């Protein structure tokens, strides 16, 4: 008798735990769950959610914010466990994989019009099957952040930094500027006689690691301004081109900046010491970083920073990746009707203007972007280095984050390969082999 | 339940009672070990991403594994790690155990020796990650104070594996030392007394009495620690995530990446089966070489 009671109680407990979990993680008919990773953006989307709830009485948006690394681990786990959010912020880097896993809901019926958004943003979220799996949310470009005082001390100014050019032979005016900004322990600059490259106090350029397969804030702007493209196709290419001579000569020059002592060595790069930290700590004078880092740089105590456009390359053009995030709906969303409504609102002019008003990110619609530029200006932040590439097509080339099948495999092969060239002294030609492996995978 | 208590006498009754007592352990074994192992072996012959049904591909995953240079490289990295980790750990643990036995029997000291083991691997990894940080780590402050250049312990290809191996030595050496210490307790004191009467030195006694009589315990400890060492994962995941440039991409981490990073559960299962085979072979060879089942005592 007693045993049975215990068993019954245990069983009931276990059952309540299971159902409890399911309820806790999921959503009921009137709740829409939404995930994002950027803390800075949380207040902006909370504001959107409040407006949305007013217009849709009975619907309740529940936003969860998780750090970048946990975000993707948890999201994947949630798809497997069936506890996925109804709507989530999506990144091109992960898009291919989610499309492969068939966990995304096609959004063609929402009637998203490409021309409502900044050029190229909406098209990035079309799958290989031609269907839409994400609605444009925001965009970002990359520019050169610099420590104003260090630049002044080196005898340079904003106009100089906005007029740099590079080439793979002698590095051009860009390398000269970076050398000038480098200072060794004895106070000698990188372009002065007797410069000691092994004891550098301030590097001209911060390190942001090897850049993996995309080089977003490391080498991609150099590669693109030399005319190189990841696969030769805008999206869903089937052959990578890391074996290309243009690419390899650029990489050899770029990582070579570290051998000359102008760029911080690979071993300086770690999770605790990314490019922005190096600038904040005063161990680097400049760093390539994305628009999403503006608020972070702005928050550094005692460092006044400026931003400059990326250097012009052998093609005569300047280049930057223009990446955009999107909102995607889970195929097995518990509240699909609510999810579709919410994702449509997220992509609307109204919500994007609200988000723009917070001045933390550039929304995907032109009006939203304008609101953001005004909001940044109010905070005293000049964002023209990030917006000019989008407006001035004559002098700038913008390109998308590479999207192909097997994106995770490509990253898994390219990460160590680039680290090895940068930090391990492996010849740049070793990328031929890596490229072959990658294309073999894409072939299957 | 009623069955177990129905007949309390006779052989059959004992058997049933035994079955009842064994059942919970067997259930755990079957659910958490046997079934996952069998499933893993099955999955190694499939293409499976967890979300869509598994598709039978025969030996494809094994063919891919044999031709995968990263698999062989990660196996090599793992072996280097195990040799460093087990080599340093066993010698240090043996030294600590002998000191604990011959010099002091303070239970306090034994407790202190064990403390790192009480810490979770992940916590130990994070703490050491900060200690060894090139810019901010107190470890590098000490290196600087000694007049040397900062050492990028976890971001340099040469240093990363030894650094991780030593972090895990730090965590496990106390536990290993206590296991060996327990083995030392079984060696009769009169042997040492007799040796002393004969004028043997401490070193000679260690070589002629301690080591030979400790052999069976040492063998079991080695087998256990080698298996554990081969499965290193958490410290790597926390400190280097397999980098720089795959320098610390140990087999377990590579398997994890294939499964949970790239959703290739079939290929990850194949590599897991390979690891199981390697470990079984090593254990068998170790067992035979060290005659772990026999004792020289008596």
Automatic annotation (TrEMBL), chain B:
Signal peptide: none annotated. This is Sugar ABC transporter permease. Residues 75-286 form the ABC transmembrane type-1 domain. Keywords: Cell membrane, Membrane, Transmembrane, Transmembrane helix, Transport. InterPro entries: ABC_transporter_permease (IPR051393), MetI-like (IPR000515), MetI-like_sf (IPR035906). Its main location: membrane. The chain crosses the membrane at residues 21-45, 79-100, 112-131, 159-182, 213-233, 253-285. Belongs to the binding-protein-dependent transport system permease family. It holds the Pfam family BPD_transp_1. It comes from Streptomyces vinaceusdrappus. The keyword Membrane applies. It is found in: Cell membrane. It is a multi-pass membrane protein.
């Amino acid at each position: 008798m007693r045993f049975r009671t215990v068993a019954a109680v245990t069983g009931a407990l276990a059952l309540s735990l299971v159902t409890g979990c399911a309820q806790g993680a999921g959503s009921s008919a009137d709740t829409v769950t939404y995930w994002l990773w950027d803390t800075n953006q949380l207040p902006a989307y909370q504001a959107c959610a409040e407006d949305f709830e007013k217009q849709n009485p009975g619907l309740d948006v529940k936003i969860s914010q998780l750090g970048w690394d946990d975000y993707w681990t948890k999201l994947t786990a949630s798809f497997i466990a069936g506890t996925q959010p109804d709507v989530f912020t999506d990144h091109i880097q992960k898009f291919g994989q989610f499309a492969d896993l068939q966990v995304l809901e096609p959004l063609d019926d929402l009637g998203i019009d490409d021309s409502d958004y900044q050029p190229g943003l909406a098209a990035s979220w079309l799958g290989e099957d031609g269907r839409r799996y994400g609605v444009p949310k925001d965009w970002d470009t990359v520019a050169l952040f610099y420590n104003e005082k260090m630049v002044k001390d080196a005898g340079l100014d904003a106009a100089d930094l906005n007029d740099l050019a590079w080439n793979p032979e002698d590095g051009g005016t860009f390398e000269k500027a970076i050398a000038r900004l480098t200072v060794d322990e004895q106070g000698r600059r990188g372009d002065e006689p007797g410069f000691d490259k092994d004891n550098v106090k301030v590097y001209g350029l911060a390190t942001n690691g090897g850049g993996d397969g995309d080089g977003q804030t490391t080498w991609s702007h150099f590669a693109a301004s030399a005319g190189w493209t990841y696969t030769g196709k805008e999206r869903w290419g089937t052959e990578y081109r890391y074996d290309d001579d243009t690419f390899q000569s650029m990489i050899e020059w770029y990582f070579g900046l570290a051998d000359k002592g102008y760029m911080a060595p690979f071993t300086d790069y770690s999770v605790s010491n990314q490019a922005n930290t190096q600038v904040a700590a005063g161990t680097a004078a400049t760093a390539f970083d994305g628009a999403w880092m503006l608020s972070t740089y702005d928050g550094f105590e005692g460092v006044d920073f400026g931003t400059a456009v990326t250097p012009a390359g052998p093609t005569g053009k300047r280049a930057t990746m223009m990446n955009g995030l999107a909102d995607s709906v889970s195929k097995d969303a518990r509240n699909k009707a609510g999810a579709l409504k919410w994702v449509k609102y997220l992509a609307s002019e109204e919500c994007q203007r609200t988000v723009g008003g917070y001045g933390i990110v550039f929304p995907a619609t032109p009006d939203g972007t304008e609101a953001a530029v005004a909001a940044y200006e109010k905070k005293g932040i000049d964002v023209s280095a990030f917006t000019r590439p989008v407006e001035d097509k004559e002098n700038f080339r913008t390109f998308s984050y590479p999207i192909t099948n097997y994106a995770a495999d490509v990253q898994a092969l390219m990460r160590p390969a680039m680290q090895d060239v940068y930090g391990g002294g492996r010849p740049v030609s070793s990328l031929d082999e890596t490229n072959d492996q990658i294309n073999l995978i894409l072939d299957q | 339940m009623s069955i177990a208590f129905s007949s309390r006498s006779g052989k059959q009754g004992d058997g049933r009672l035994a079955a009842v007592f064994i059942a919970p352990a067997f259930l755990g074994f079957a659910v958490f070990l046997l079934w996952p192992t069998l499933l893993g072996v099955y999955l190694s012959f499939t293409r499976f991403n967890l979300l869509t049904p598994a598709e039978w591909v025969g030996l494809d995953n094994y063919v891919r594994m044999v031709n995968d240079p990263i698999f062989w490289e990660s196996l090599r990295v793992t072996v280097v790690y195990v040799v460093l980790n087990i080599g340093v750990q066993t010698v240090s643990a043996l030294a600590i155990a002998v000191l604990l036995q011959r010099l002091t029997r303070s239970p306090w000291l034994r407790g202190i020796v064990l403390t790192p083991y009480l810490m979770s691997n992940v916590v130990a990894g994070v703490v050491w990650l900060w200690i060894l940080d090139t810019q901010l780590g107190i470890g590098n402050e000490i290196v600087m104070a000694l007049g040397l250049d900062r050492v990028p312990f976890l971001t340099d290809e040469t240093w990363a594996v030894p650094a991780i191996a030593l972090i895990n030595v730090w965590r496990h050496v106390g536990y290993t030392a206590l296991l060996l210490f327990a083995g030392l307790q079984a060696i009769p004191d009169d042997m040492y007394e007799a040796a002393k009467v004969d004028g043997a030195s401490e070193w000679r006694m260690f070589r002629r009495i301690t080591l030979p009589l400790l052999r069976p315990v040492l063998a079991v400890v080695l087998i256990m620690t080698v298996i554990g060492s081969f499965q290193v994962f958490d410290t790597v995941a926390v400190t280097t995530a397999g980098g720089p440039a795959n320098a610390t991409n140990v087999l377990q981490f590579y398997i994890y990446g294939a499964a949970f990073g790239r959703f290739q559960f079939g290929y990850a299962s194949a590599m897991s089966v390979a690891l199981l085979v390697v470990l079984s072979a090593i254990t068998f060879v170790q067992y035979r070489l060290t005659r772990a089942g026999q004792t020289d005592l008596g």
